[in-house]
Design a protein that fits this description.
- With 147 residues, the protein is of the alpha+beta class.
- It has helices at residues 17-28, 32-37, 45-62, 92-122; strands spanning 8-11, 66-72, 75-83, 131-137.
- A 4-stranded antiparallel β-sheet has the order 1-2-3-4.
- 24% of the residues are buried.
C-alpha cells in the first residue's frame, strides 16, 4: 500500500530559506508590483525577482520573525513570511546584502522598491499583531488549499 503524503506545515529555518524564496519568487514572478519594480531589468528580470525574495526571506529570519511553509510529497510548495510589530535590528550581513542588491539593480529599480517599502512602513497598524508580508503557492499546487 502506498504511503499517504499529507501536506505538512513547517517552520522554515535558514538552511531552507532558499527554498521558501524560490516558492515566493515563482508565485510573484508575474505580479504587477514586482513587474513595476524591475521594469528596466530586461533579461535579468527573473534573477532579480529570485534575488529579491532571497533577501526578503533571509531578512525576516534575521529579525527572528517567522517563515512558514507547506511541504507536500517532500517538496516545499507554499511559503509565508510573518512579521511582528517589534523591529529587531537586522544583522550587518543582511544590510550589506541589501546594499549590494540595490547597487546591482540600479538606481531606478532601487528607488521604486524603496518608495514602496516607505509607504508600507508608514501605514502599519500599531496595535500588537502579525503582518503577513508574503504568501505564495507554486502554480502547480494552486487551488489545493495550501494557502
Amino acid at each position: 500500500m502506498a504511503e499517504k503524503m499529507d501536506p505538512r506545515l513547517i517552520i522554515i529555518t535558514l538552511d531552507r530559506a532558499h527554498e521558501a524564496a524560490a516558492v515566493l519568487a515563482e508565485a510573484f514572478m508575474d505580479y504587477p508590483v514586482i513587474r513595476f519594480f524591475f521594469a528596466d531589468q530586461g533579461e535579468l528580470y527573473r534573477k532579480r525577482v529570485i534575488d529579491l525574495y532571497n533577501l526578503s526571506v533571509r531578512g525576516v529570519l534575521a529579525q527572528h520573525w517567522t517563515v512558514m511553509g507547506i511541504e507536500y510529497h517532500g517538496n516545499l510548495v507554499a511559503a509565508a513570511c510573518l512579521k511582528g510589530l517589534a523591529v529587531i535590528p537586522e544583522t550587518g550581513e543582511i544590510r550589506e546584502e541589501e546594499s549590494r542588491f540595490f547597487r546591482e539593480i540600479g538606481p531606478q529599480a532601487a528607488s521604486r522598491i524603496k518608495r514602496y517599502n516607505d509607504v508600507q512602513e508608514n501605514h502599519r497598524y500599531q496595535e500588537p499583531h502579525y503582518y503577513l508580508e508574503d504568501i505564495g503557492v507554486l502554480e502547480a499546487c494552486r487551488g489545493m488549499g495550501f494557502a
